[in-house]
Amino acid sequence: MAALQNKINLREQMPKYLNAEVHIRVTACVLKELEKLGSALYGALHICKQFDVESCPHKPVRTAVECIKHMARRIKRKMTYFFATQDNELTEALKQIPGIPILFIKYNAILIDRPSEATIQEVEKPKNQLLEVNKLKRAVFGEAEKPKRKRKGPKGPNPLSVKKKKKKDHLTSVHQELGPNEKTATPKRRRRRRKERREGQ
């Protein structure tokens, strides 16, 4: 009825809102209730008859609220199902079932209700269970010792990065010891000096 009043075409708007292919379904119990309510909801009945009918096992038929609650419990693990309703009683009932996304119309737009407390608790269950298991392990086995890390000593210089001393450095140091004007004697000069000394004697 809200879609009719707000002139929202559900077939066009639902895929855009959910960004996915959407199959809108209604149950036989919902159609029967709309028929009983008469002309006041004739427009809603006309729209709902355009959708596919989801088979429900209710014979005799139940109220729309009871039927949808039963369907939500039966298919709650199939996360491809969204439940659209403007009924406050049904909304509160669906919020008691974890993992049920609820759509509604407000301000001329389709909106999705925030996750219920039951859904949040269901999501937190694995974390809480893991914490309880860890607490039990600590109580039984005590605190687990953390492996000690070996301290590494200072590393020596990389042999590839150390430069080798050149022979030129040795010659330079000898030259510095003799002085700037003195030159190192070659073997030929040493022989000449020895010869001169002998002749002088």
From TrEMBL:
<dbReference type="GO" id="GO:0032040">
    <property type="term" value="C:small-subunit processome"/>
</dbReference>
<keyword id="KW-0539">Nucleus</keyword>
<feature type="region of interest" description="Disordered">
    <location>
        <begin position="142"/>
        <end position="201"/>
    </location>
</feature>
<comment type="function">
    <text>Involved in rRNA-processing and ribosome biogenesis.</text>
</comment>
<dbReference type="Pfam" id="PF24779">
    <property type="entry name" value="UTP23_sensor"/>
</dbReference>
<dbReference type="GO" id="GO:0006364">
    <property type="term" value="P:rRNA processing"/>
</dbReference>
<dbReference type="Pfam" id="PF04900">
    <property type="entry name" value="Fcf1"/>
</dbReference>
<keyword id="KW-0698">rRNA processing</keyword>
<dbReference type="InterPro" id="IPR057776">
    <property type="entry name" value="UTP23_sensor"/>
</dbReference>
<comment type="similarity">
    <text>Belongs to the UTP23/FCF1 family. UTP23 subfamily.</text>
</comment>
<dbReference type="InterPro" id="IPR006984">
    <property type="entry name" value="Fcf1/UTP23"/>
</dbReference>
<keyword id="KW-0690">Ribosome biogenesis</keyword>
<protein>
    <recommendedName>
        <fullName>UTP23 sensor motif region domain-containing protein</fullName>
    </recommendedName>
</protein>
<feature type="domain" description="UTP23 sensor motif region">
    <location>
        <begin position="148"/>
        <end position="167"/>
    </location>
</feature>
<feature type="compositionally biased region" description="Basic residues">
    <location>
        <begin position="186"/>
        <end position="201"/>
    </location>
</feature>
<dbReference type="InterPro" id="IPR029060">
    <property type="entry name" value="PIN-like_dom_sf"/>
</dbReference>
